[in-house]
What we know:
Blueprint: H1 7-14, E1 61-62, E2 68-69, E3 80-87, H2 102-105, E4 109-110, E5 118-119, E6 121-129, E7 135-137, E8 148-150, E9 153-167, E10 173-186, E11 191-202, E12 224-225, E13 244-246, E14 261-263, E15 270-279, H3 284-296, E16 303-305, E17 318-326, E18 333-347, E19 354-368, E20 377-390
Parallel strand pairs: 6-10, 9-11, 17-19, 18-20
Antiparallel strand pairs: 1-2, 3-11, 4-5, 6-7, 8-9, 9-10, 12-16, 13-14, 15-20, 16-17, 18-19
Amino acid sequence: xxxxxxxxxxxxxxxxxxxxxxxxxxxxxxxxxxxxxxxxxxxxxxxxxxxxxxxxxxxxxxxxxxxxxxxxxxxxxxxxxxxxxxxxxxxxxxxxxxxxxxxxxxxxxxxxxxxxxxxxxxxxxxxxxxxxxxxxxxxxxxxxxxxxxxxxxxxxxxxxxxxxxxxxxxxxxxxxxxxxxxxxxxxxxxxxxxxxxxxxxxxxxxxxxxxxxxxxxxxxxxxxxxxxxxxxxxxxxxxxxxxxxxxxxxxxxxxxxxxxxxxxxxxxxxxxxxxxxxxxxxxxxxxxxxxxxxxxxxxxxxxxxxxxxxxxxxxxxxxxxxxxxxxxxxxxxxxxxxxxxxxxxxxxxxxxxxxxxxxxxxxxxxxxxxxxxxxxxxxxxxxxxxxxxxxxxxxxxxxxxxxxxxxxxxxxxxxxxx
Length: 418
């Protein structure tokens, strides 16, 4: 921490154009930054540095000043794009590690933290940039091009690296590739600008279908999802994995309808239900939990998309679902109905209004389960309902203010009569 007493000493040590911010070695056992909780987990979590066999995947960036620092780790699922300045010299370019392709692919990535399973970084493509800025994509990327001196130029120097990481839904990295941009450095140049990017793609995923562009279309399912800690909205590619209600079955038996679900369609008010036969041997708490799971489904979502094309990364475009519980004061309460109210409004111009969801409320209504005499049975109705309410303000035509008449006659208008 700089203080008035040690400021001059720190300025002398770190105030030059570049300084070493790295330890001598990048062994995992050294004082290099270690990801929180990485030693205890067996999967990558959002923001945790991507580990390699010697430390972590480096993504050079400008930390203190515009000069490159190789101590910046790449965070899992954190797409980044950085640019920084690196000090170079043509005479020693062959010995500068950051100018060589090997510096970025020679360390294998750990598939999961603290594991022995390695994922090699393959070369996806190599593009050569001329001194005039034009780029040529090489036909083959199998041969590494290392920096070397040719006619007072340092050729094959790394100007840019783009990492592409493929992972599974369990937080395991399965593929890693790097695309390089190589260029030449003139003898009179003392520094170059390097660019670095990293992106993550989940394997075996299908695009989530939209329900309008941008506003909802009547009859298409309402899009819903969850918000894991520190990431964007997570959606299921299946309609029955989003906002659903109990689907009525022919025999009206709730136990048979437990797995039958119907998606909530925008603009369609829905009522569905079933009947449950209760005996004296049934216990209150297990029965209440069974009914609640049946009404909500396997996983009830947390957020609903405000527009039919809301992007998962734009969390502010998603509306949280408000939960309400209506019950009586008694010892045994069982849920008997789930009511979903979706409030929406018209958004945009009068000529082409777009449907936008502004509020979603899920209300669970419970009733008292009275103890039945031995051998007696009782049948109760369990219902689900969906209501769409248009809360748009009525459009009123507006007019501009009428022009005011300001008459001024010339001073000799009545001459020669006055």
